[in-house]
Amino acid sequence: MSTLTLTLNGEPAELAVATVRDVVAHVTGRAIGEDGAAADGRRLGVAVAVGGEVVPRSAWATRELAAGDEVDVVTAVQGG
Questions:
Q1: I need a labelling partner for 73 at 20 to 30 A (CA). Which of 33, 48, 62, 80 fits?
Q2: Pick the CATH number of 4-75 from 2.20.25.100, 3.10.20.30, 3.30.2000.10, 3.40.30.10
């Protein structure tokens, strides 16, 4: 896997990633299955957009990234 220079949540980042799934694993620190679910079975509470377009969880493993992509990973947080 090669290193890509991306914009991740508005900040420049150099990551050894190839797909959206790889970015989600990097951000969450959890293994992600081919179906976009956490390998540990717990809920992720994550949404991802590349270039402003939401990437469905079912496409995380196949949506390849390119240098310069703008990736936003949004996590749900409980609170009030």
A1: 80
A2: 3.10.20.30
